[in-house]
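FAQ: What does the model actually see?

It sees only this:
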Amino acid sequence: MQIILTEDVVGVGDIGETVTVKPGYARNFLIPRGAAIEVGSASASQVAHMSRRIEAKKRQLQGAAEERAKEVSALELNFTLRVGSGGKVFGSIGNRDIAAKLAENGVEVDRRRVLLSEPIRSVGDHRVSVKLHPEVTAVFKVTVSKAQSTDEEEAQETEEARQNLEAAAEEFEIAEGFEVSDEDSDEEDTGAA
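And it is asked to produce this:
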C-alpha cells in the first residue's frame, strides 16, 4: 500500500516521503495515529494540499532540529568504565546508554537515532553523531574515563578474599576433625544416672 508519511517513522521513512508498506500496518497503525495518509484515498487536490502542509511542517521541524543540534553539539557526555590491570576494559557504552545520558541533559532522543557503528569499548574521547532530523545530524563529544580504582583498593579486596578463604578452610578443618565416639556418649549417659 502506498502512503505519504506525515511525520518521521523510524524504520519506515521520513516526513513527506511516499513509501510502500503492508496494508495492515498502514490501516491499523500509521493512518489512525495520523502518521500517514493513503495516496489513493483522496482526490488529487486534497493530496496536493496535504503535501504542502507536510512540507511546511517538515521545514518547521528542520528549524527546530537545527536549534537542538546547536545545543547537542555543545554537550560533552562523561562515562566511566572499569579497566583491569592489563588495560582490558570491562563493559561498553552503547546507543541506549548515550540516549539515557542525553535524556538526563534534557535532550530526548530515540536510541535508534544515535549513530554508533559499534559500542564504545575504549578509554578516551570519542565523537558520536545523533540524527535529530532527516537532514540534521549533530556531533558531540563522549569522554570515557577509567573508573577510580586504585592499586590500594585492589590489594585490599585481594587481602579480604584471601582472609575469607582462610576462614572457610579453618571451618572446614574443624568440621572434619570433630568426631563423636560411642565411649563419650556412654559416659554422659551413665554419669547422669
